[in-house]
Amino acid sequence: MTELLEMNEAAFLHAASAANGGLTDFGGDEFREPLRVLLKSLDEEAQMLPQALFGVQQRILQLLGLRLGMADLFKKHPEILDEPIERPLIILGLQRTGTTKLQNVLACDERWHTPFMWEALFPVPFPGEQKGDPSPRIAAARQWTEMFYSAMPEAMAGHAMVADQTEEETFAVELAFRWTVPAIYGMIPSYIKWVEEHSCVPTYQDLKRTLQALQWQRGSRKPWLLKAPWHIGFLDSLLKVFPDATIVQCNRDPFESVPSNCALMYLGRRGGRPDLDKKVHGADVLAMMGREMTMHLKQRDALGAKDPTIDVPYKHIVKDSVGVARRIYAARGEAPLSTEAEQAIRDWEANNVQHKYGKWEYTAEEYGVTRENLAEAFAEYYKRKALFE
Fold first, then answer.
1. In this predicted model, which residue has the larger pLDDT, 28 or 148?
2. Residue 247: beta bridge partners?
3. Mean pLDDT score of the chain, rounded to an integer?
4. Which of 12, 214, 359, 387 has the fewest CB atoms inside 10 Å of its own CB, making it the most exposed?
5. Please, is 249 exposed, middle or buried when counting C-beta atoms within 10 Å of its C-beta (0-12, 13-18, 19+)?
6. pLDDT tens per residue across span 290-313
């Protein structure tokens, strides 16, 4: 570990510029205020060990470097911003509700563009990279995942990431610093409150530009298939940027999903704060997930008949993913699932059985999650139990 940066905006912008050839255009200023709030919250609330804080600082610098690289790429190739991003299919839902499986199942159909892990981590070509040969970024993504799982080997059972396979867009969406993903690093309530109370339109504008850059590099145009549980709570901002999107919401009883996510997020937080009480942590995660689901449902209600959401129960994804795909395609007005795509789905399922990377072990009790506190936090969601039954 090298020396920690001071936890202020100026120090990070200077360090990012120095590490990226002196570039200074970060592509707008909307990220600056939430970055300041995040740094302050990490400094004053997270109570992280220095080595863990160093890792978070490096991730922030990586994101700032991506902002610099993206802005520079657009200057050199302004035609990228003319790439149409039309009718994306965006999967969301609470963590542990089948969103990962559904994305991978639908990605078996070649009608979609869907991000690979290396693209989500490194959407901008590396300096000196030969056009059409992203192998340096793939190698860097492999190195990143190896480091991640060497530090947290248990996480493989909870969420397996492979450098050259389909992955959610979460890594790319962090660019705006207006999303709740940093909650995986530690308890940062001031920052999460700020994000929940402010528009996330800049978040999705950055996502759109990232998709445009990736589509331009691929040299073909298809609808994008995206997925991230972290979209919950920010549907209004998402639809302002992607007004023709189809939303697929995966639904499951929170008693089956929330404790699992508490356990997964605890892996991220305990590295920085080994003395973190599991029940204190669980209460924080439960409250955040409950608030954001309540926000999400209110936003759906406000849309009324214009709500573009297709609801899918978790148990249907597990038992009949081909049937779920057919239902989604029919609701969206897509051409039917081809014989080849159906076989590809069945082959993927045969090669990716549940618990392939080990069984994810946890209990609700160790995180203080009960039927009673779930019923309170997810009161609005439980009123709609038919969605996940």
1. 28
2. 90, 309
3. 94
4. 359
5. buried
6. 999 999 999 999 999 999 999 999
Q: Characterize 315-346 residue by residue with b for buried, 16 or more Cβ atoms within 10 angstroms of its Cβ, and e for exposed.
A: ebbeeebeebbeebbeeeebeebeeebbebbe
Query: Tokens 């996480």 sit at which residue?
Result: 155
Q: What are the pLDDT digits (tens) for 322-344?
A: 999 999 999 999 999 999 999 99
Per-residue pLDDT averaged across 281-289, rounded? 97
CB 161 within 8 A of CB 155: no
State how far the Cα of 312 lies from the Cα of 340, in Å rounded to an integer.
Answer: 23
Q: What is the percent of the chain with per-residue pLDDT over 70, rounded to a whole number?
A: 96
pLDDT digit string (tens) for 97-121?
A: 999 999 999 999 999 999 999 999 9
Contact assessment for residue 102 and residue 324, using Cβ atoms and an 8 Å cutoff = yes
Give dist(CA 136, CA 92) in Å, integer: 31
